[in-house]
Amino acid sequence: MEGLQTYKRKIGIFWWTKRLSHFRFISRELTSIAVAFIAIELLLLSKAIMNGEESYQAFVQSLTHPILIILNLIALGGILYHSITWFNLAPKAMVIKLGENKVPGFLIALGNYLGWIVISAIIVWSLL
Length: 128
Description:
There is one protein chain. It contains four helices and two strands. By secondary structure, the protein is mainly α. It folds into two domains: about 15-80, 3 helical TM bundles of succinate and fumarate reductases; about 95-128, no CATH class.
């Protein structure tokens, strides 16, 4: 079968912007960049703490730079979007049965949101 060519459909780099469901999916996947940014920032904070007071103060001072403030606000938005979409997907990823009955999906999502609220409240309480 010489001479046969396979058909290769050309797909642009922004193919995912044409359908809302694809856009939301790719947007959620891109939030991993925000998660990685915050993880790296927390690792650098840990290193600064281990290196002593002077290093810690220098790190905290660097966080006041306007570019880092903007990046942290963008990362916060990305992480909130990531968390909310994950909590909403959890009932599809996690089926819980009690005997013969399935736990309704909204209860699984509600449990995630309540856990988030309780843990956030504990953190806020411990900081104040």
